[in-house]
Specification:
Elements (H helix, E strand, L loop, with lengths): L2 H37 L3 H29 L1 H20 L4 H29 L2 H32 L4 H4 L1 H15 L14 H24 L4 H23 L13 H30 L5 H7 L1 H21 L2 H17 L9 H29 L6 H38 L7 H10 L14 H40 L45
Helix pairs in contact: 1-2, 1-4, 1-5, 1-7, 1-10, 1-11, 2-3, 2-4, 2-8, 2-15, 3-4, 3-7, 5-11, 5-12, 8-9, 8-15, 10-14, 10-15, 10-17, 12-14, 13-14, 13-17, 14-15, 15-17, 16-17
Length: about 550
């Protein structure tokens, strides 16, 4: 096998491995309503199916690349593929929502090895300009997977079953393993830090998991329940201790000294706010369109494809604009435009027409997001010295996932509360039978799903259905307002806080994945020397 062919096949293997992770992050949202119906899963269970995966991924993301550096990048990459395959089977055969949630958590742990592992392999395989081109190709093809993920997932759900979205991983994983064994060379970093920050991993997982658990369970348990306030307060305290530990531990997985750099700190703060709005909006738009508006899984999958297409087509152009103008303007205007797009979605109702109600908001949101992603990623990487690009991108990616983790939990609590208060107000003056009251109480566990009115008199059934519809619309609109305001605030943060470099050639947009997917990738897409004018950390990250 020639060297050029080996490199090409290595690139294909890394693209395929990462694509599997990205696909599972998009297709599951489309399948949630069908999963809910099949496994009798309420809103809280649907949130956990997404959150368990994200929480596990966040917990190991920053050390996934480090494990490859220490034990062998190909070995850890293949281990991640095998783990993802086994857990995909567990997800596909899950008999209950609880089993599916546990399997998704294990799947997230395996996924945390694949994304940083794939880019670490590219870093070890390619050098100089070839490396930048390889990372750019990796980014483009994983972007294509994101474009077709929702529609493909919807098609599988409609044609076969929701379980097919997990079974389809198996042939892809087998092919990727065979490619990796045949063409990927093993590599290690002889100077890699041999210590793993296990306490930091545990503290971050429990510190984030506690508040997420509390917020998801609050609608069922109430704020006064120890099942809510104990994990909420305990998680916040443990996460504070995690930050303290990371600031003191020599082998910390999170180098907090990077946050002394102004643009790096502001960019990650904006990432936290903007991605909270982005990820929260994507999930609940998909749920509302299927469960309340009556869209099929395929139609719901196609509904958000314009966003992905705009990202794929326009992000490189906005990246070039940012190079000539500096990152502050697109990082300010982009999220504001995106936020306006989400506010337009408050026009969407239970009988939503796609072209006149859904599409305008989707297009405006996609336009704003396209102007945001490339400058946001580039600024996170370019604000630090090139030798810190790997850990900087890992932090940025971790922040974006943490934003989604918290946003889904918070929005779920807001939606449940708004639904309950709206429904109660709608039927406050009505004399309902116990059966009607029970139907409305059951609906509160799954706000977007029309209540079961079987057995009720026609007039009462109409009143119950109308109240539930009003509650679903009101809670969905509240979620879009919150998400839109978050994105607008993120844009204002960038406009106030980001500093443009003094010279055009000081800011070179890397060919990197959205939100810093390149978790341990040195020289993340840079093809030339980079000179940093911001203050650098006092010492090399441990």
């Amino acid at each position: 096998m020639t060297e050029s062919r080996r490199k090409l096949l290595t690139l294909i293997a890394t693209i395929l491995g990462s694509t599997i992770v990205f696909l599972d992050g998009t297709v599951v949202n489309v399948a949630l309503p069908v999963i809910s119906e099949d496994l009798d899963a309420g809103l809280a269970d649907q949130q956990w199916i997404v959150e368990a995966y994200m929480l596990a991924t966040v917990s190991l993301l920053l050390v996934g690349g480090a494990l490859g550096d220490q034990f062998g990048r190909r070995r850890i990459f293949i281990a991640g593929l095998i783990g993802f395959g086994v857990t995909s089977v567990l997800c596909a055969i899950a008999p209950t929502s609880e089993t599916l949630i546990g399997s998704r958590a294990l799947q997230g742990l395996a996924g945390a090895l694949l994304v940083p592992g794939s880019l670490a392999i590219l870093t070890a395989t390619f050098e100089g300009a070839e490396r930048g081109k390889a990372i750019g190709t990796w980014t483009a093809w994983t972007g294509i997977a994101t474009v077709f993920g929702p529609a493909g997932g919807g098609a599988l759900v409609e044609a076969l079953s929701w379980r097919a979205i997990f079974w389809v991983n198996i042939p892809l994983i087998v092919g990727c393993i065979l490619l990796a064994l045949a063409c990927v060379r093993e590599s290690v970093d002889p100077e890699a830090d041999r210590a793993i920050d296990w306490l930091g991993i545990a503290l971050s997982a429990v510190g984030l998991g506690g508040p997420v658990y509390a917020l998801i369970e609050q609608p069922r348990e109430g704020w006064g329940s120890p099942m809510v306030y104990v994990p909420l307060i305990g998680g916040v305290l443990l996460f504070a201790f995690f930050l303290f530990w990371e600031s003191r531990y020599r082998h910390a997985m999170l180098d907090l000294r990077l946050f002394r750099i102004r643009n790096f700190a502001i960019t990650n703060f904006e990432t936290l706010i903007v991605y909270a709005g982005l990820i929260g909006a994507f999930l609940f738009v998909t749920l509302f369109l299927q469960q309340t508006a009556g869209y099929s899984p395929l139609a719901a999958g196609f509904a958000t494809i314009p966003i992905s297409l705009l990202l794929f087509l326009l992000s490189p152009r906005f990246g070039r604009i940012a190079i000539s103008t500096g990152p502050r303007m697109p990082m300010c205007v982009g999220p504001i435009v995106g936020g306006i797009g989400l506010l337009l979605l408050t026009r969407v109702g239970a009988d939503a027409d796609y072209v006149t109600e859904v599409l305008p908001g989707v297009l405006v949101f996609g336009l704003g997001l396209s102007a945001t992603v490339a400058p946001l990623t580039a600024t996170a990487l370019n604000s630090v010295e090139q030798r810190y690009a790997g850990i900087a991108s890992g932090i940025n990616n971790g922040v974006s996932r943490m934003a989604g983790l918290l946003a889904i939990a918070v929005l779920g609590a807001l939606i449940a509360g708004q639904f309950g208060s709206t429904v109660n107000a709608e039927v406050a003056d009505a004399a309902l039978t116990p059966g009607a009251e029970q139907a409305l109480e059951s609906a509160k566990a799954n706000p977007f799903v029309p209540p079961d009115t079987g057995g009720l008199a026609s007039g009462e059934a109409e009143a119950v259905a109308a109240a539930a519809t009003e509650g679903a619309e009101s809670s969905f609109h509240l979620a879009m307002v919150v998400n839109g305001i978050l994105m607008i605030i993120g844009g204002l943060v960038a406009g106030i806080g980001i500093q443009n470099p003094r010279r055009e050639d000081d800011w070179i947009a890397p060919r990197a994945a959205p939100a810093g997917e390149c978790a341990r990738c040195d020289e993340a897409g840079h093809t030339g020397d980079h000179h940093e004018h911001s203050a650098e950390p006092a010492a090399t990250p441990g």
